[in-house]
Amino acid sequence: MKQSNRRAVISGTVCLMVICFVVTLTVAGTRFIFKDKIAAQEWQNTEQSMNRILKADSYENLSTDDEEKAYAALDRNGEILGYIFITEAYGYGSMISVMSGISAGEVMGIEILDCTNETPGLGQNVAEVSFKNQFSGLTSNPEVTKTEKKTADQVEAVTGATKSSVAVAEAVGIALSRYQEHVDSVVK
């Protein structure tokens, strides 16, 4: 290889590295500058989702770590209306994140927060209203069935997406368990 070719490759590589560094620094700097606005927007989106499943005047964070997210739904007098838990379970291709609203031991509703890595047109259909509505009113761990549901604790799987449907049911079951653990710890 000639000296001029080697120099051209090295200068091109250095130039590309400098460009990548500057772009990365710019993106990181922008994120740092707007972190408070980003956090406020994320909280607003979370609050909107919570309001769809368990209406309240405010939500108090009960989480002790980043892994588990739990909130108390409060009325304007500070009385607890219920609890909201964000749980996950593995579906067909990824973790599915579910927000469950529970009051007096009963699921008030759920929101699918993330199922984007599930199969489009199949697994992602767990976010459809008709599937999510099946969880309202449940008081025990849901059982997924491929046929028409026969008992109150059953939910009918999304056609062609049994693993994704089971993952949502598992996430709701985890939320019901966490609710019971929380209620038991408060009563003691």
From TrEMBL:
Keywords: Electron transport, Flavoprotein, FMN, Membrane, Phosphoprotein, Transmembrane, Transmembrane helix, Transport. The chain crosses the membrane at residues 12-34. This is FMN-binding protein. The keyword Transit peptide does not apply. Residues 91-179 form the FMN-binding domain. It holds the Pfam family FMN_bind. The keyword Iron does not apply. It comes from the Bacteria.
